[in-house]
Amino acid sequence: MYSSTIKYGKGDVAFSIPRKNLLGVIDSEPLESIGTEEEVTRHALENPIGSPRLGELVKPGETVCIVVSDVTRAWQRMWVYLPFIVEELNRAGVRDEDILFLSSTGTHREQTAEEHALLLGPELSKRFSVTDHRCLAHEDMVHVGTTSYGTAVHLNKKALECDHIVVTGAIVYHFMAGWGGGRKGILPGISSYETIMANHALALDPVPGNGRNMNSRSGNFENNLMHLDMMEATAMVHPTFMLNAIPGNDGKIAFAVAGDWQEAFYEGARIVDKKDGVTIPELADLVVATAGGYPKDINFYQTSKTIFNAMEAAPHGGSMIVLSACNEGYGNDEVQFMLQEFPNTVEREKEVRREFTIAKYVGYTIGYVAENWDFYMVTEMPPSKFEGTGITVVKTLDEALDMVYQKRGTNLKTWLMPHGANTLPKLKK
C-alpha cells in the first residue's frame, strides 16, 4: 500500500491506496528563486524585458497611474513590490503628488481605509491614498474603442488622464483567460461592468447550446478569445510599464517580471507553466485532489480552482475525489443558485447566457464537471447543500474511496494532487 497525508482545512488527512494503482503525484516544480522577495523585485525592475527601465520612461512633472490589485488579491503581497516602483519614479523626478494609486477592483466592492493601507504597506500608506475603480459609475468611464470581438471598451477616466499607466499584479493560472496577471489589470481591472461581462462571455462557445468555449481554459492562449480580447483592449491604452509577481509554493514572491506589458507578461506565463504545469503521460481512472488546505479550501467558490485542474487528469466518466473543508460554505450565492436551481448543464447554460456573471459561469462549469465525471466531495458542508447537483458528498476520504472502489473496482489507475488549486496537469501530446 502507498500511505501518505494531504492537507484538509487546517489539518491533515491520512490515507492509503494500493501502490500498484498509483501513477504518481502531480505537484509543482520547486524552481529556485534568485533571492528574497525584495531582491527578486529589484532585479526585475533593473532588468526589464523588452523595455527601458521605468525611470527612463517618465519625466519630472508627468503624472503616473499605478494600477494595483484589490484586497481579494492580497496574496500577491503588493506591499512588497510597490515601494520599489515608487522609489524608481521618485528617483526619475516624479513627485508623490503626481502618482495615483488606482485599485483595479473589476466588479468587486469598494474597499475600506484599512484595506487600502494593507495594499500599500505601512510606509506608502502614510504618503498616498488609494482610489477604487467603480465599474458601475458610468460617469467615471471613457470609451476608447471596440475590439474585433465586439467588446466596447470603457475604461477608468482617471487612469487615462495620467501621462503614464503602470500595471502591477501577479501571474498564476486562470481557468478562463489561461493565465491571470498582465492585461488583467486593465480588463477586467479598470473596465466598466458592461465591458467586463462582454469579455468574460467569450468563455462560452459562440453558438448557443454548445456550452463552453474549450479554448478558454487554464494554461492556454491559443484561440482563447477572452484572452485575445483582453490583449486588444489593453493595447488601446498601451501601458507604459508592467511589473508582475509570481508566487512560490510558500506564498511569498519567488519570481517577478517587469518591462513591456506584453513581452514581460508572456515571459511570466512561461515561468508559471514551468513551475506549476505538470506534463502527465496518461489520464487516470481516479484523481484524488486537495486545494492544499486552509485558506485555499475556505469555501466552495475557491475550491473551483482545484476542481477545474483535477478534471484535466481524468477522462470524461473518470472518478474525482476533491477534499475541501469549505468551512465558510459556498462563498458565493450565485454558484449555489446555478448548481441547485437548474436540473442540468443545458438549463444552466441558458441562464448564464441570459445574464452572464463570473460566479454563474463558475457554477455552470462545476455543474458540467458533475455531469461528466464521477465526482465526490470530502467536505464539512452538509449533503443538503448539494442536493440535485450530481456531486456526492461524504465526510471522509476513506468513505469516498470505498464508494469509488465498490462502483468501479479496486484496480484504478490513480493520480494524487496535493496542491490542486495551483497545479495544472497537461496531457503529453
UniProtKB/TrEMBL annotation:
<protein>
    <submittedName>
        <fullName>Uncharacterized protein</fullName>
    </submittedName>
</protein>
<dbReference type="InterPro" id="IPR048068">
    <property type="entry name" value="LarA-like"/>
</dbReference>
<dbReference type="InterPro" id="IPR047926">
    <property type="entry name" value="Ni_dep_LarA"/>
</dbReference>
<dbReference type="InterPro" id="IPR043166">
    <property type="entry name" value="LarA-like_C"/>
</dbReference>
<dbReference type="GO" id="GO:0050043">
    <property type="term" value="F:lactate racemase activity"/>
</dbReference>
<dbReference type="Pfam" id="PF21113">
    <property type="entry name" value="LarA_C"/>
</dbReference>
<dbReference type="InterPro" id="IPR018657">
    <property type="entry name" value="LarA-like_N"/>
</dbReference>
<feature type="domain" description="Lactate racemase C-terminal">
    <location>
        <begin position="283"/>
        <end position="421"/>
    </location>
</feature>
<dbReference type="InterPro" id="IPR048520">
    <property type="entry name" value="LarA_C"/>
</dbReference>
<feature type="domain" description="LarA-like N-terminal">
    <location>
        <begin position="8"/>
        <end position="204"/>
    </location>
</feature>
<dbReference type="Pfam" id="PF09861">
    <property type="entry name" value="Lar_N"/>
</dbReference>
